[in-house]
Design a protein that fits this description.
The protein is α/β, with parallel strands linked by helices. The chain contains nine helices and 14 strands. It binds fe (iii) ion (FE).
């Protein structure tokens, strides 16, 4: 039985997510950006959280850790490399670690200072601020090749994998994506859908790996039209990625 997921907004543009395994009754919170909306989601669903899966240490992803731990006596899991910076952490994970939510297997993928959590049976992954809908994370704590290698791992997940991300950044990402991939009809169509969703203040997430592969320029380093647009027909994939990331920083 696949997991059930509740997604909601926190702070200004952060997503909060609850993941519930109906068979065991266990529930994980993916990052803890803000206590009140998380408590509201717990109340709305009736799901009692048993753990927090932390993706990275930034304040907008861990602020409610201690308050939720105090209230629910839950277990906090996060990346080994950032354990000193994650409030209340009980257990660390790294590339290849495996966790369980009931019988549901959770595989850990190390992604550019973060960890992403992949549930292969339910075909869902939580990529926080590494892979966004139509974008990728800013390189605060890593160099372009590290982010490129991380995104390559996520791009290799099955196309039907549903992706939840850390922020609602899709509209700005769509405008940038069109600037480097202006002839991509799937992208143009998606950008129009995103504009309409945001006019109604609706979330643009989740997405899927398949949709990102066809429209997200940060996963399209191999694409001939993008390469031509950038004048980088013969460059290596990582170089094309770095150029796209640089352009986004200056967009
Ligand atoms: Fe963030």
């Amino acid at each position: 039985m696949p997991v059930e997921i509740e997604q909601f907004m926190c702070r200004t543009d952060n997503f909060g997510v609850l993941v519930h395994d109906p068979k065991s009754g266990q529930t994980a919170i993916i990052d803890a950006p803000e206590e009140a909306p998380i408590l509201a989601a717990i109340k709305r669903t009736g799901w009692t959280p048993t753990m927090i899966l932390t993706t990275h240490h930034h304040m907008d992803h861990v602020e409610a850790n201690l308050a939720l731990k105090e209230r629910f006596k839950l277990r906090i899991v996060g990346p080994e490399a950032e354990k000193a910076k994650i409030p209340g952490i009980d257990e660390t994970v790294e590339e290849g670690s495996v966790l369980h939510l009931g019988d549901e297997r959770i595989e850990v993928i190390a992604t550019a200072g973060h960890v992403s959590y992949h549930l292969p049976e339910s075909k869902v992954a939580f990529t926080a601020d590494t892979l966004f809908a139509l974008g990728c994370g800013r390189l605060f704590e890593c160099k372009p090749p590290v982010m490129y290698e991380s995104l390559k791992k996520l791009a290799a997940l099955p196309a039907e994998t549903t992706i939840y991300c850390g922020h609602e950044y899709t509209l700005a990402n769509a405008r940038f994506a069109l600037s480097v991939d202006p002839t991509n009809s799937a992208l143009k169509e998606r950008a129009a859908r995103i504009e309409a969703l945001r006019v109604d203040n609706k979330p643009t997430l989740p997405t899927t790996i398949g949709e990102e592969l066809s429209t997200n320029p940060f996963l399209r380093w191999h694409d001939p039209a993008i390469r031509k647009h950038l004048g980088m027909e013969r460059a290596g994939d990582a170089e094309v990625f770095a150029e796209i990331r640089k352009r986004k920083d200056n967009f």
